[in-house]
Amino acid sequence: MRYLRQSTATIVEVGPFVDDTDGKTLEEGLTIASIDIQLMQPLDTAAVPPDRVANGAFASDTSWTKNSWTIAGGVADSAGAQSTDIEQTPATAFVENVAYEVVFDVATQSAGDVTAKVGGTAGTARSTVATFTETIIAGSGSLLEFTASGFTGTIDNVVVKQVPIPITPAASGTSNDMVLTQANTGTYWLELTANQVGIVGRHKLTAFISGALIVWEEFQVLEEEVYDDLFAASAVGYLKPSTAGRDLDVSAGGEAGLDWANIGSKTTVNDLTQTDIQLCDTTTAVTNQVTADTTAISGDSTAADNAELFFDGTGYAGGSTKLGVDIVSVSGDTTSADNLELDYDGTGYDKSNSTIGTATTNTDLISAATIADAIWNEARSGHATLGTYGDAFIGLVTGSAEAGTLSTTVMTSDLAEATDDHYNGRTVVWTSGVLAGQASDITDYLGSTGQLTYTAVTEAPGAGDDFVIY
User: Fold this and answer.
1) Does the residue 219 lie in any domain?
2) Rounded-to-integer distance, Cα 396 and Cα 452, Å
3) What single-letter DSSP state applies at residue 7?
């Protein structure tokens, strides 16, 4: 299977074409314009393509925004040579660059014409009484429209379904040129436009011409950034670094990790939590260290002086004198306090037949449960220290489904991010509603509406259902 870049014009191989009688003779003199080519895109629903139109037979005065049109007698009526739209937003949204077949009747016509539009892309203006069938590649809009241009008449029996994109190849001069790759191959080059590969997912192209066996090719269209990470010049691979041009350090055994010799900007603070540093060859001046005034620690001036020598870099040679500590405030046991004083003030304590006294009980201790609750119940925005476990949760995105498009593959949400494709490749997990506990991968995001597209789940979410994006 070949991989193609989304929304990028490309050239693909189609063939080989062989004779449909003997199954082996190469067909290299085909009439290009007579080849029937269909490009099937991924289905934009989880089922066989349904009719997208509500009340397409105009059996009632519902489902349509009429403007200057009227609905009565089983038809939509444009009277007085007017020029407005009758329109609706289908329950299952149109997908940009997907092909839809539009079938409708012009039941009566006495003036002007009427044009079908899908997602803002216009079809052909119709000015005669007939049943019309046409394929329209959807634009970025959401509406199904019939636009009157001085039209006096009626329309009826509107049906819209997803279909393969029809491609009409030509020998030259079009956006779908098709030429023989090389003699004795039976294989042809075919140009595809950016719109024809505008949808991410699996595509199947079929080509048929009388006298030759049918030919088909399959392609996987990848989102632009993913394709570039895998196949562009100097591609860094699927796991790409946060800074362009860098790569992950990988050991000879294939293990990914950090090579400390390759760390840039070494003046930057690094969190070495859970890092086992077994050997340090050289240390430089240490900044931001804890300082202490030993006079406040011990009432023994000799011990305080010894501690100062110990920590200020000049060193203390030892001897019989030890660090002095006044622990009267540590223990209520005067004997224990005296023993510790002897141990640290330089006179020494032989420790015979005596133990350190037991400290008094502090009744004001904060319980472990209280501490845990204070940490876990704090808002994510409060975990602002870079590199901490709390900071890791800031990357999570929460939201709720909103009324609009709610299906097994598409969900309108209250997400405020305005950039298209912003959440592509991440995972959505529902935390409430009928889908609570289910997860799906995000394949598309529309910033203008907060709409997420994802791999099909078992049910449609409901408005107000909560979710988290990982």
Assistant:
1) yes
2) 16
3) T
Say if residues 20 and 213 touch (Cβ distance below 8 Å).
yes
pLDDT in tens, 245-264: 555 555 666 566 665 555 66
**pTM, full prediction:** 0.48
156 in the same domain as 82: yes
Rounded to an integer, what distance in angstroms lies between the CA atom of residue 183 and that of residue 108? 54
Element counts in the chain: helices (H) and strands (E):
5, 23
Pair 80, 158 in one domain = yes
Q: What is the residue whose two structure tokens read 């330089």? A: 346
Q: In whole angstroms, give the CA distance from residue 78 to residue 84.
A: 9
Residue 333 domain-assigned (yes or no): yes
* Residue 242: both structure tokens together: 């946060």
Q: Decide if 235 is inside a domain.
A: no
For residues 77 and 148, state if they share a domain. yes
- 379 closest CA partner among 366, 390, 368: 390
**Rounded alpha-carbon distances, angstroms, from residue 10 to 3, 166, 183:** 11, 17, 22
382 to each of 366, 368, 379, 390, how far by Cα in Å?
Answer: 21, 20, 5, 8
Residue corresponding to tokens 């000049």: 314
Rounded Cα–Cα distance for residues 265 and 150 (Å)? 69
Residues of the chain with confidence (pLDDT) below 50: 320-325, 354-360, 364
- Write down the pLDDT at residue 359: 42
* Domain residue limits at 18: 2-41+166-225
pLDDT at 323: 45
Q: What is the pLDDT of residues 84-93, one digit of tens each?
A: 999 999 998 9
Identify whether residues 302 and 337 lie together within a single domain: yes
Long-range contacts for 27-33 (Cβ within 8 Å, ≥24 apart)? Answer: 27/186, 27/209, 27/211, 27/212, 28/180, 28/183, 28/184, 28/185, 28/186, 30/188, 30/209, 30/212, 31/209, 32/169, 32/170, 32/171, 32/178, 32/179, 32/188, 33/168, 33/169, 33/170, 33/171
Residue listed under structure tokens 């399959």: 218
Cβ atoms < 10 Å from Cβ of 197: 24
Instruction: DSSP letter for 241, please.
Output: -
Q: How far is residue 197's CA from residue 137's CA, in Å, rounded to a whole number? A: 12
